[in-house]
Amino acid sequence: MSQSDRNNYETLRENDNTYTVDDAIENLGNGKYQIMIFVVSLLSWMTEGMELLLAAILGPLLICHWKISPISESIMSSATYVGFTLGSVLFVPLADKAGRLGASYSLGVFLQSVLAYFIIPNYGWRIWVAVISTITLLSFLLSLSLQESPRFTEKLGNVRKTESILKIMYKWNNKPFLKGRLLQKTAKLPKINSYAEILKFEDKFSATFLYLTWFGINLVYFGICLIIPQILKDGGGCMKNLTISNNYGMDEFGNCQVFSGKDFLYIMLSGFSEVVAAFATWLLIERVGRINMIFVDNLLTGIISLVLIHCFPKAVYVVLLCLARAFSCSSSHVIILLACEFFPTNIRSTAVGIGFFVCKIGAALSPFIGQYLVTYYPRGAIGTIGVFSLSTSLIVLFIKRDTTSAYLD
């Protein structure tokens, strides 16, 4: 919107009985609608966390229960992310036309690990899978009650739909709706969503390095998360002692005893490290900046990973892995925020969808490091993670524009 359009827009508001979307949202306050958003988001977080925990925990368990090989375990885990990879390209661009809803991640991963801690040792992995599948279904059903973002429909120029959404939100919160008419912004809307529009984006150089950074972050993050259960499964706190178990994790009576109760506690604590990382990121990100935050996170992750090549007691090893996971998790949050702020609204979902496609390729490759390579050459696996992390810390510096405190159009 030009300065003259903005001035005319403000003059209309002063001289007429009108309100804007910002006015309506500001006056809405907090109530039942926000509670529903929180509940749906919480369940969505748990659903998102399911993909990681299924690969990390279920893989080692199925080696014992189904007698599959380490390479089969890696392929099975990798297949989890293939659907995400395809969906990012095929369906995410529709969000710029049909709408978008958001979710976060770390709390869901922790809550899923809590469920694993209480359910798997007592009731088995099948009950755990059934519970998290039920949560996924419940998340989907409740999400149907949410409304599209009124700012998004306003961007499309659909005043009637925008006003209808706002009225529903006010009804949820049991508040009287604003009097007057909704004032539509007069700025010419850009063409919404197509891959052709992506090619017209000016800063292709930075966008390329943003995608490369996202790829490296996800490969490192998922690789670390997959390595932790492998370390626990083999009872190792020293990389050189990790071996392929000849009995697939069975005890002397033929029962699968892949993880002990203490191992599940370690997994839960490693999940909690992500919650701490998310909180720390929230505190520091505006002060440090997006690019600097990603640089520091990956630098520390790489250093810790290379330190882990050496031998430590198991408890110390798990603590160091949790720290590496926390820093890697922090950078995974920041890169999503950077990507969402980096691209303009009319191509944001398509551009971010491409980013998810690229990053899920990294996730799909991570099982071959965190589950297969670690079985045969554990030091090589953790060293590979360290090299990728250090490389990512350098790649992110090629992004020319930091979006910290930037205005979103």
From TrEMBL:
Pfam families: Sugar_tr (PF00083). Belongs to the major facilitator superfamily. The keyword Repeat does not apply. It is a multi-pass membrane protein. One of its GO terms (cellular component) is membrane. Its main location: membrane. It comes from Dimorphilus gyrociliatus. Gene3D superfamilies: MFS general substrate transporter like domains. InterPro entries: MFS_dom, MFS_sugar_transport-like, MFS_trans_sf. The chain crosses the membrane at residues 35-63, 75-95, 102-120, 126-146, 209-232, 264-284, 291-309, 315-339, 351-374, 380-399. This is DgyrCDS3450. It comes from the Eukaryota. It is found in: Membrane. One of its GO terms (molecular function) is transmembrane transporter activity. The keyword Transport applies. Keywords: Membrane, Transmembrane, Transmembrane helix, Transport. Residues 1-404 form the Major facilitator superfamily (MFS) profile domain.
